[in-house]
Design a protein that fits this description.
The chain is an alpha+beta fold and about 725 residues long. It is built from 12 helices and 40 strands.
Length: about 725
């Protein structure tokens, strides 16, 4: 069981994983070649980081521990070990390890002597090989085409300089692969080449090196492996509740009246929205500031920023601002030496943010960073976390990044970069989102509608993308021709400022810009998103505590289902929902694979038998949504913003058919006081046979006395209202 994170542990810097040494041996002089190209004395060390994480290190034979690994946190775990058994194996909990030389191989086996993983170091020291097994493999970060990574050869190059940018998005390489077989491998080679085209995986360093770290993560289930990866690189932060609401991005701005008018329109139309995001001047002719790198407000549109921010906050909007940090950024905001005042140092650079922080900004959107090396990317991610805490210790930070590395999940969110508005791009983004979740980064999303307009950007494509985004962690509309990204934007008669006309993208047909139906459908999914916030925030708490993503590959829940591991165009949304985005133009039906069991159609409230492919009819208003039998889904009232107070109680929807459970989590949604126990976690347990629901306050939780809930059994449609005054409440349905 993971110890509850403290704010300091979440801010923990990079460090060598401290574990328990299992085995150490000096290798033969001819075994490996050091940086000089000449044979040298090297030590092989096997270290148990936890009972499920093994570090394999090769380093020069000196009296220093293995080098610190980028992205890896210290490990405080106690592990029971013993070595030197008669069979020569090294014992590691429920596993055993055999070391062979010439070639150097480390073989990890379980109690049944089944090989779980095998790591081999080539004699020239430039390549590490690992066992791929017989099943698909996933991971490697963001920005690759395809679901299964088999057949991939990737140089781990960061940023938007990639041939697949317009479809797969910006490349955020993470040297981690995971298999449904119950293993994962993290290679300490952020600039290496991953080659998964053969029977074994191969990672080649760009230079000869005598120091290598490879981490093998094992578990009885894929969920255990993801938890192990979180132990290694850090658990996801718990975001502020508002960041799970809808965010509206703006580009070229005309005036103060326009800026305030859009915010006012959201509230007048009663279209839920939590955050207003403003691009900087530079990527558009008139943004919030005066240019790239500037923290001076553009007086033409923000003549009185403090007063405008006051009005935004009075209407319960958060404000997020776009920035382009310097490419030589380095260090930490806590630096106090003379270098801390030099250009490019994080302490000096963060100080430039402070006047805007004092005006009332609620979050940042640090763009670019493609040319930064991996350590600088992660330092920048960390700066926007620590800096905001330094400025406002009473609230959780928000930062939306385009670049990062393993460990980003501790600090912020990620979006997929400058993608095209095309159907094939929408389809590709589904698999991109699933794979980045399998790399430990749960808070991810896209530019809804695609960043660059093409001839394919029609009301239909925008709506299908909006529906998909409603079931992504980041629900945000952004792109060139930005007024079409407003929920009512397709009925304005204009796409907005034609920035980049003739040089970037295409513009919609005039007849498409008088479509009032788009707003109606956007409203439907906005309202559903806000109704599901209790479910979504509880799922974020689960990610914070276990490392499980919000968007989940089917095989995480069905690891023994060979069909599930081939499905990359649908996913689980938390524990209970199955989401099948519609990504084909003019679709009237959608093929959906339902794993074994009973499923409920969310829209029809009808049961369907799983273990088969079903053909679900769809219209422009519908994407297939299913719930597993036994699901317990908390739904709130329709709100205009995430923290909107409403006396209407949460409804727990029970979908009978088998036993089930759900952990409902609540706190104030903004501060770190949950770390001091100011939260409520209720374990909801459904017993299908006796039709009994038990609501039990989890250990450590503070009961909110008098809290009411409505309980609804979906097969009967009847409601019961209960009041939680005791630690355990039992309801018979």
């Amino acid at each position: 069981m993971k110890t509850e994170l403290t704010r300091r542990s979440m801010l923990g810097g990079l460090g060598a994983g401290l574990g328990h040494l299992l085995f150490q041996k000096q290798l033969k002089a001819a075994s490996l070649i050091a940086e000089t190209g000449k044979p040298g004395k090297l030590d092989l060390s096997l270290t148990a980081m936890t009972s499920g994480i093994l570090r394999i290190s090769i380093a020069p034979s000196v009296a220093t521990p293995p080098s610190q690994e980028l992205g890896v946190l210290e490990s405080p775990h106690e592990v029971t070990l013993h070595t030197g058994d008669a069979d020569g194996a090294v014992r590691w909990g429920r596993y055993s390890i055999r070391v062979e030389e010439e070639p150097l191989r480390i073989i990890v086996m379980d109690a049944e002597q089944k090989v779980r993983q095998e790591i081999q170091f080539d004699t020239d020291s430039t390549a590490v090989r690992f066992r791929l097994g017989a099943r698909p493999v996933f991971g490697l970060g963001e920005g690759l085409i395809g679901y299964d990574r088999r057949g991939t050869k990737d140089g781990m190059h960061n940023g938007q300089d990639t041939p697949e940018l317009r479809t797969a998005g910006s490349r955020v390489p993470i040297p981690w692969v995971i298999s449904p077989e119950g293993w994962g491998v993290f290679v300490g080679e952020p600039m290496g080449t991953f080659d998964l085209t053969g029977e074994t995986g191969v990672v080649r360093s760009p230079v000869a090196t005598s120091t290598r770290n490879v981490y093998v993560v094992l578990g009885e289930t894929p969920a255990e492996v993801l938890r192990g990866y979180a132990e290694l690189t850090g658990y996801p932060h718990l975001p502020p509740l508002w960041s799970l609401g809808y965010m509206q991005s703006h580009r070229t701005l005309a005036s103060r009246d326009e800026v305030l008018g859009i915010a006012k329109t959201f509230r007048e139309k009663k279209l839920p929205c939590d955050a207003l995001i403003y691009l900087g001047t530079g990527f558009c002719p008139s943004g919030w500031n005066t240019g790239h790198g500037s923290f001076t407000f553009n007086a033409d549109v923000f003549p009185d920023p403090a007063e405008m921010f006051r009005q935004f906050h009075e209407e319960h909007f958060k404000v997020v601002l776009h920035v382009v940090p310097p490419y030589d950024l380095h260090g930490k905001i806590t630096d106090t030496n003379a270098a801390a005042h030099a250009p490019g140092d994080a302490a000096a650079y963060w100080a430039e943010h402070m006047p805007v922080e004092e005006v009332g900004v609620d979050g940042w959107w640090p763009d670019e960073g493609d040319l930064l090396p991996p350590d600088a990317r992660l330092e920048r991610n960390e700066m926007y976390w620590e800096g905001q805490i330094q400025a406002h210790p009473e609230r959780r930070p928000f930062a939306l990044h385009r670049n990062g590395y393993a460990g980003l999940q501790r600090y912020g969110w990620l979006w997929s970069g400058d993608i095209d508005a095309r159907w094939k791009t929408l389809a590709a983004q589904v698999t991109v989102g699933i794979n980045i979740g399998l790399c430990g980064i749960p808070y991810w999303g896209t530019d809804t509608g695609g960043f660059i307009p093409t001839k394919e950007l029609t009301p239909e494509l925008y709506l299908r993308w909006f529906q998909f985004s409603a079931f992504c962690p980041l629900f945000r509309s952004h792109g060139v021709a930005w007024k079409m990204r407003l929920p009512w934007g397709w009925d304005m008669g204009t796409p907005g400022p034609l920035e980049g006309a003739g040089a970037i993208g295409s513009w919609p047909a005039p007849q498409d810009l008088h479509n009032a139906h788009v707003e109606q459908i956007c409203r439907k999914y906005l309202e559903l998103r806000y109704q599901l916030l209790p479910y979504l925030y509880s799922t974020a708490d689960q990610a914070h505590g276990t490392g499980m993503p919000l968007m989940r590959a089917l095989w995480l829940a069905y690891p023994q289902d060979p069909k599930a591991e081939t499905i990359g165009d649908q996913y689980l949304w938390g524990d209970h929902f199955l989401v099948a985005p519609v990504t084909e133009q003019s679709a009237t039906q959608r093929t959906v694979y339902l794993p074994v069991g009973t499923w409920w159609d969310f829209w029809k409230n009808e049961r369907t038998v799983g273990g088969a492919i079903v053909m679900r009819e769809v219209d422009i208003e519908t994407i297939p949504l299913y719930l597993r039998a036994g699901s317990i889904v908390p739904m709130g009232p329709v709100r205009q913003y995430a923290t909107d107070t409403d006396e209407e109680p949460i409804t727990l929807r029970i979908y009978p058919g088998t036993d089930g459970r759900f952990s409902l989590y609540e706190d104030d949604g903004i501060s770190f006081r949950y770390l001091q126990g100011e939260f409520m976690r209720i374990e909801c347990i459904w017993e299908d046979g006796p039709r009994k629901l038990t609501l039990e306050c989890a250990e450590g939780t503070r009961l909110f006395p008098g809290k009411k809930m409505t309980i609804r059994a979906m097969d009967k449609g009847t409601n019961q209202v209960v009041t939680l005054n005791d630690r355990v409440t039992v309801i018979q349905l």
